[in-house]
Each structure stands twice: as structure tokens, then as C-alpha cells.
Design brief:
Helices cover 46% and strands 19% of the residues. The protein is of the alpha/beta class. It is globular.
């Protein structure tokens, strides 16, 4: 069984839509653990109206998202925990796709997916493709959170072993948690978009999120060893992404762009050996399949090359 953990605070506007997207999954062996984190709007009434006996409601005083998530994980009865936000939607075969992969690979601790961003009224805006394999996600960890938070399904025991969510890391609590999981476990993303993330005024202010993410990123750089990929590995990776069905070009583009971001972060932190290894590697990528990326790379690489030349001239 999988436990879908959904924290909610004053979420009446989108809550029923989120609940329906979980209860309508093709994978039916689930429980939906909704943690009402001290809501003062109509959230409690919506939850009282639910007739599906797979819905379990935990009501508590407001503790914030990390506390609500930890309460839900602790109460979960399933072997797996799936994340779900109360203003988003899961596509119908999301759990079937993710749990099928996790059941086949017992050493895989956590599995996310690509996702769509949607507008306040539920219309799709953009596809957000994610990197896929463990080694690529580990490099991505040096730049950003490698997973869409709501897309993740993880083994409950692993989340408990690493201590769950840390309230001090909010609103980068997911980035912080995944970095701890990845210290000892293999992870992955599915290429398919299986989740819809709603963009609306109630989301966390970007500036606050950036500060929190930077704190986690600094810790990753201090505690983890960066291993840039070799030229043959990058060529192999890009070819593999291009062969991934209809999303192949988008996934290949995401791969190259994220490694370019990694190169920029290495330069910002003075890791010139990694810059020297990454720059020629990225130039080997088949840029013709990523429209406009060549111009982006030239624009990003030029100041880095100038800075390296200036350092050598001193």
C-alpha cells in the first residue's frame, strides 16, 4: 500500500480537486492522509464531506509544512509515501507508474517525475522536464533541488531513517530532505510528466525560497564531492535522453542547461578544475537538437573564460 500525504492549511479553493486527483488514481491500494494544519477556512468542512474510506484526516494546531508532513509520514500505514500538495493535481496513472518502478528496483529509495506547471484556474502553462538517473541528479544537487516536491514517492522507512523534514530549512525543506536521502541511497526521476503544479499568488515568495535553497546548496558543497562527467558519459547521456519518446528533446535540453548551471556555480565558487572539465564536455553535446542553446552557452561561458584568463594573468 502507498500512503499519499497531503498537508493543507486554508486550502478550500483547490482542495477538492486535489483530493479527486488522488482518489481517481488507477492504483487503488492507497490511503490518503490529509493533515489539516490548523485551517480556519472551509477546509475542515470539505474534509468532513469525504465519503471514500481511504481518506484519513489528521487535525492539528498550525505547525507549518514541515511539521504537518512529519505528522503525516509518522501516521502513514503504507510501505511507500507519496507527496501531494492540496493545490495541485496528480495525473491518473501517476502512482501506477511510480510504484511499478519502485517495486522492480528494491534499492531505489525515492522516485520523482517530470511535471506541468498550471495556472490558477488549472490550465497548463509549461512542461518542466527533470533529469533522470542517480548520477545526474547528484550533480544537479550542487545547483538546485533535483525533484518537483509533489512528484516524489519514497520508501517510508528511508524518510524515517534520515529524520524526516527539518523545519529550519523551510521553504527549502524538500531540497534539504532529498540531500540527506541521497547521501546514502539511490534515487531517480521518471521522464513522463505525471503531476501538475499550480502557480498562484499563495505560493512561497521567490526571494525567501532562494535564500533557503542557498543555505542547503552551501551545505551540499561543503559535505559532498563533486564529480563532473567525462566526455563519453555526457555524449551517452544526451543520446539516451533523445531516445526517451516524445519528451526526448525537452529532457536533453534540461540535461545540458542544468550542467551549464553547474559550470557557472563551479566558476562562482572558484572550482576551476571542474570548470575546465565541464566546459569542453558540454561543447560535445549535439546542440543542434536544442534550439537556441548554443547562443545561451556562448553568453554564459564568455564571462567565465574572461574571469579564468584574468586569474591566470595575476
Amino acid at each position: 500500500m502507498v500512503s499519499v500525504v497531503m498537508p493543507v492549511f486554508n486550502g478550500e479553493r483547490y482542495l477538492q480537486e486535489a483530493l479527486d486527483s488522488v482518489l481517481g488514481q488507477t492504483w487503488t491500494d492507497l490511503e490518503l492522509v490529509v493533515v489539516d494544519d490548523g485551517s480556519t477556512d472551509g477546509t475542515a468542512e470539505i474534509l468532513r464531506r469525504q465519503s471514500d474510506d481511504r481518506v484519513r484526516v489528521l487535525s492539528q494546531r498550525n505547525t507549518g509544512i514541515a511539521g504537518a508532513l512529519n505528522a503525516g509520514i509518522k501516521a502513514a500505514r503504507g510501505r511507500y509515501v507519496a507527496r501531494m500538495d492540496a493545490d495541485d493535481r496528480s495525473l491518473p496513472d501517476r502512482l501506477s507508474r511510480q510504484l511499478g518502478r519502485l517495486e522492480l528496483e528494491p534499492d531505489l529509495a525515492l522516485l520523482g517525475a517530470s511535471f506541468y506547471s498550471i495556472s490558477d484556474d488549472g490550465h497548463r502553462l509549461d512542461l518542466v522536464p527533470t533529469l533522470l538517473a542517480d548520477e545526474e541528479l547528484r550533480r544537479d544537487l550542487f545547483v538546485r533541488c533535483p525533484f518537483g516536491h509533489g512528484t516524489v514517492v519514497a520508501r517510508r522507512q528511508v524518510l524515517l531513517e534520515v529524520g524526516g523534514y527539518d523545519a529550519r530549512a523551510v521553504p527549502a525543506e524538500d531540497y534539504d530532505l532529498w540531500s540527506r536521502v541521497m547521501a546514502a541511497h539511490r534515487v531517480a526521476n521518471l521522464p513522463e510528466a505525471l503531476y501538475e503544479y499550480r502557480v498562484h499568488p499563495g505560493n512561497t515568495p521567490k526571494s525567501r525560497g532562494q535564500l533557503a535553497a542557498e543555505a542547503v546548496r552551501d551545505r551540499v558543497w561543503q559535505t559532498a564531492l563533486l564529480e563532473p562527467p567525462s566526455p563519453p558519459q555526457v555524449v551517452s547521456d544526451v543520446r539516451r535522453y533523445l531516445s526517451t519518446g516524445d519528451l526526448g528533446r525537452s529532457l536533453a535540453s534540461a540535461y545540458v542547461r542544468q550542467h551549464l548551471s553547474l559550470l557557472r556555480e563551479c566558476a562562482r565558487r572558484g572550482r576551476w578544475s571542474a570548470v575546465l572539465r565541464l566546459a569542453p564536455v558540454l561543447l560535445l553535446c549535439p546542440l543542434v537538437v536544442v534550439p537556441g542553446l548554443g547562443r545561451v552557452m556562448r553568453r554564459q561561458l564568455t564571462p567565465i573564460v574572461r574571469k579564468m584568463a584574468a586569474n591566470r594573468a595575476r
